[in-house]
Amino acid sequence: MAQDRLTASQNLPPSDVETIKLESNYLRGTIPESLENRITGSVSTMDDRLLKFHGTYQQDNRDLRLERERQKLEPSYQFMVRVRAPGGIVTPEQYLILDDLARRYAGGTLRLTTRQSFQFHGVLKWNLKRTIREVNEALLTTLAACGDVNRNVMCNPNPYQSEIHKEVYEWSKRLAEHLMPRTRAYYEIWLDGEKAVDSRDEDSVKNPRIPAPGAGSLERKGSGYSEDETEPIYGPTYLPRKFKIGIAVPPSNDVDVFSQDLGFIAIVENGKLAGFNVAVGGGMGMTYGDPLTYPQLARVIGFHRPEQILEVAEKVITIQRDYGNRAIRKYARLKYTIDDRSVEWFRDELNRRLGWELEAPRPFRFEHNGDRYGWVKGTDGKWHLTLFIQNGRIRDWDDYPLMTGLREIAKVHTGDFRLTPNQNLIIGNVSPRNKRKIEALVEKYGLTDGRHHSALRRNSIACVALPTCGLAMADAERYLPELLDKLEVLLDEAGLREEEITIRMSGCPNGCARPALAEIAFTGKAPGKYNLYLGGSFEGDRLNVLYKENIGETEILETLAPIFRRYAAERQPGERFGDFVIRAGYVREVRDGRDLHAAGQEALAAFAASVGSRQQLP
Ligand code: HEM
Ligand code: SF4
């Protein structure tokens, strides 16, 4: 398998994206010109690629595609804008600005993502600059929210529950700052007044409104950028693909640390943060029909002290920069770089670059990868309320003014807002005095901690998919709630309403909803059709296996109903659904992505054989 990937890319030139990056002059391209072109709502292909590094994706409203084509209009181009906030924490003032931007430029809706970010959808090209500038005026950024760089650093979002959480959160912020691209293109393009600024304009380089983190004094060179932005970590072509980091604090694995390119697991000894276990090479995506691609779990390779975290992250990234596949993008994630050469090779290379050796990993134990809802009191006497936000979608519905309710809370709240890795929202650091005020608003606007929903719904995630995502093959966010209504009927019949089971749906196999780690998962194949996977663990440390392919709703319900019934009748005390489906033989246990396709084929064949033998019965 490793050999096949390496052979496939041998003698191939770098992919077109590599050339675009190299020729972009540190991510500038012709973005200002594209933004000023009034003839189209889109940007050039090259700038489309580069804009991702600036935190925005060009999309089009797919619901309108056919109609616009019929009317001979260009697609309804619009942009998704992603805001970075390490660990997903913003102040109430920042939240109010995001709420306001969503109302003005993004169709009155905000989306909380599975990586603790905010997303706006539907921003028109004419409003893009204003939106990004206002995000920055709120002292947030969109730089490196997408693109071939380190993205938003995820972190267990409950830092004030203990001193350890606070310390870990501080490390996540420092990691994010340390790994930020150094290019000044972002500041030139988005932050210099109304005028789209030419990158050769000296003033714009000398007087950026907000300095780039880590950038020192600027010495201009004729080519339009200074030595300070030569990307000491990334180099001029950045990374071969996106790069994701998350920090978990056991027993919570809410960040799904094994889904990350680079995961850190906080090790607490005698009440103190002793350091972190390092896990490398996780990733969720795959390409249908290409068995050389697969979701993979990050593998724990060692332990280091807290203050060594920046150095470890930087060296891991430079290995991926130097060895990652730059010819075929679908083979370019760190998981394949490692699987193509071996975990032992990677550990040795990392130790060599560090100049010291990682210690042996230390013991840890995860209990769940979901969120804990409702009020929790922190060690410092402050309160935190985790609200259930279905699929992270914030807007006002006729019978559910969620967006207004949260805005009213932001107006009186003195603590902060925290996004969870499961698309929910924590009203954090509520003073005992303010708690009653917040409770009254929660009640008034009908906000919920999910208590009246089934435990399955409380543990559900769906990616955005249709109509905005260009890669979606089926609905996810728009369909999962409806499917859950029907699954809840089955759960009620089996007496499982309060049984916590994780369920996730992605509109395509890229896996933005981290489907490969759920106990039950779906990835879109075609409108209304999904692959069904079973057997992830409640702790997020096992991959699920393909159980049925390309099925619609009726078959989904017919497949799951008897499994729910058997689980209710035959489970052992405390046995989780994902563990049960393995013990009962529906699918086998998989902890290495390289076994996944074989396991899926076995499960499909076993199912076909069982149907065959049933049909042969007299
Ligand atoms: C080849 C792989 C992938 C590609 C090309 C890709 C592309 C995209 C695109 C185009 C969107 C925007 C959809 C929209 O908001 O309209 C998106 C959303 C998102 N992706 Fe990915 N993605 C990939 C894999 C992943 C993976 C593995 C993760 C994390 C486990 C992830 C995390 C996210 C998140 C957090 C969002 C925001 C929306 C949400 O919460 O669902 N992506 N991705
Ligand atoms: S999983 Fe696929 S459909 Fe869903 S947001 Fe990601 S790329 Fe789009």
Strand content: 15-25%
Across the major sheet, the strand order is 1-2-5-4-13
> N-to-C terminal Cα separation, in Å?
44 Å
Hetero groups: protoporphyrin IX containing FE, iron/sulfur cluster
| SS class | alpha+beta
Quaternary structure of the protein:
single chain
Radius of gyration: 24 Å
Shape: globular
Tally of DSSP helical segments: 20
Q: Catalogue the unreliable spans.
A: 193-227
Q: Which percent range fits the helix content?
A: 25-40%
Strands, count = 22
Give average pLDDT, whole number.
92
Major sheet summary line: 5 strands, antiparallel
What does this protein structure show overall?
By secondary structure, this protein is an alpha+beta fold. It contains 20 helices and 22 strands. The strands form five sheets. The chain has a five-stranded antiparallel beta sheet. α8 runs parallel beside α11. It starts with a helix and ends with a helix. Residues 193-227 have low confidence and may be disordered. Iron/sulfur cluster (SF4) is lined by residues 463-465, 469, 471-472, 476, 506-508, 510-512.
How do the helices and strands line up, and which of them pair or pack?
Blueprint: H1 2-9, H2 16-22, H3 31-36, H4 45-51, E1 56-60, H5 65-70, E2 77-83, E3 89-90, H6 92-105, E4 110-112, E5 118-123, H7 125-137, E6 154-155, H8 163-178, H9 185-190, H10 202-206, E7 245-248, E8 262-269, E9 272-280, E10 299-304, H11 309-323, H12 334-341, H13 343-354, E11 374-377, E12 383-387, E13 393-394, E14 396-397, E15 400-401, H14 402-412, E16 416-419, E17 425-430, H15 432-444, H16 455-458, E18 460-462, H17 480-494, E19 503-506, E20 520-526, E21 529-534, E22 545-551, H18 553-570, H19 577-583, H20 596-616
Parallel strand pairs: 6-7, 7-8, 18-19, 19-20
Antiparallel strand pairs: 1-2, 2-5, 3-16, 4-5, 4-13, 8-9, 9-10, 11-12, 12-17, 14-15, 16-17, 20-21, 21-22
The protein binds protoporphyrin IX containing FE (HEM) and iron/sulfur cluster.
Protoporphyrin IX containing FE (HEM) is lined by residues 57, 59, 80, 113-115, 119, 121, 259, 284-285, 392, 463-464, 468-469, 471, 510-514.
